[in-house]
Amino acid sequence: MSRFWKIALIVVAVLVVGGVAFRLLHKPGAEPGAGGHHRQSAQNGGAPGAQGANGQDNSPVPVTVEPTVKQNVPVYLTALGTVTALNTVTVNPQISGQQLMTINFQEGQAVKKGEVIAEIDPRTYQAAYDQAVAKQKQDEASLATAISTLDRNQKLVANGYVAALNIDTYRNNVDQLKATVIADAAAVRSAKVQLDFTKIISPIDGVAGIRQVDPGNIVSTTTNIVTLTQIHPIYIIFNLPEQNLEAVRNSFQNGADKLEVIALDRADAHPLDTTGALQVVDNQIDTTTGTFKLRAIFNNPTSTLWPGQFVNVRLRVRTVQGGLVIPAQAVQRGPDGDFVYKLQQDQTVAMQPVHVAGEVGDSHVMVSSGLDDGDQVVTEGQFRLKPGSKVKALKPGEVPAVQVTADGNKGKQGGKRRASAG
């Protein structure tokens, strides 16, 4: 090794040893004498949360508590649904080979049943109708003549002026002309129907979509003019797991007028329409998905629900009378299941296992076991607790007092607060 590198290594070693010695000599609280002891006492003595002789914090932990509440709780099943039009009609001409003359609807606007939404050139069919009417009148005139001839000859038969055989011929001629007139009337009605088909009528109350053909084109019976959708009322179709089938069928068949169905937006925050009602439970289970199909009907007065829209659906199957309800944030997840911190009479807390039976709105849950009416449970500050911890119970919305430590740092008793469920 060269002399240069030996000198460099010696310099580095001296710097390291000097740095370690400096840190040891200037370590906080390491000064001898009463000064160091006085600083430590000022930091620990007398402040809230001070440690006892055993080194543990004996001050009460500030927490928010709320009582259990007994109330009637509706039980909902949730699913993702698809909005479907009550009726969907693709409008096609019923005659072909003629020119489309006019379009009488506005795309995206509502149309009424019976309105003329388009017209086809009627001249050919008008001519056919006029011919049928004329033919009927001609044959009716021939029938009148034949009836008159028959009546005159019947009077002459008694005097022997006309043979009885000829009377039979006259009578058969009248019957033949009567049948011809009946056929003419049918031909007139047929021609009238064809003529009426030149006016394309809306078959339902609905909303017109985008038109598929422009005026001036030759149309046929396969030409799509427009698609109409009926949205007042409207359907929502959704699926539920097969294990819910019994509960739904029992509620649907056992005297319930109509099961309530609520349609919510994609964030499950706001109802999209007035409450709907379950209308149909499908007659089979889909073996590929293990689900069964249901259909609910909504009045949809403000047209909030739109065909093809995806919505979240809540189906109320029953109502639990006197269920115990607590804030959802009180429930903690442990290795052995759900539990809450229950406030004891001596202002300590105990871990209480509970069974959550279902959600109640967006911020509460119903418990089926583990608690009684009026029990106090901790809803905020659980992260500082353990079984037997002494607590200072606060009402929802109360903020713990701010304490100042001896070193000048500020801290909130009870730690970070979350939004209250109330």
UniProtKB/TrEMBL annotation:
Domain Multidrug resistance protein MdtA-like beta-barrel residue range list? 233-317
Organism phylogeny: Bacteria, Pseudomonadati, Pseudomonadota, Gammaproteobacteria, Lysobacterales
The family classification in the record reads: Belongs to the membrane fusion protein (MFP) (TC 8.A.1) family.
Q: Per UniProt, what is the name of the gene that codes for the protein in this document?
A: mtrC
Q: Does the keyword Transport apply?
A: yes
Report the source organism: Dyella nitratireducens
Does Membrane appear among the keywords? yes
Residue stretches of biased makeup (Basic residues): 413-422
Which residue range or ranges hold the Multidrug resistance protein MdtA-like barrel-sandwich hybrid domain?
87-224
Q: Which InterPro entries match?
A: MdtA-like_b-barrel, MdtA-like_BSH, MdtA-like_C, MdtA-like_HH, RND_pump_MFP
Q: Which residues form the Multidrug resistance protein MdtA-like C-terminal permuted SH3 domain?
A: 324-381
Sorted alphabetically, which NCBIfam families does this protein's record hold?
RND_mfp (TIGR01730)
The name on file for this protein is: Membrane protein
Question: Can you say where in the cell this protein is located?
Answer: Cell membrane
Residue ranges constituting the Multidrug resistance protein MdtA-like alpha-helical hairpin domain according to the UniProt record = 129-198
Keywords, A to Z, come to: Cell inner membrane, Cell membrane, Membrane, Transport
| Low complexity composition-biased segments | 41-56
Q: What is its main location?
A: membrane
Pfam families per the UniProt record, alphabetical = Beta-barrel_RND, BSH_RND, HH_MFP_RND, RND-MFP_C
Return the annotated region ranges for Disordered.
31-64, 394-422
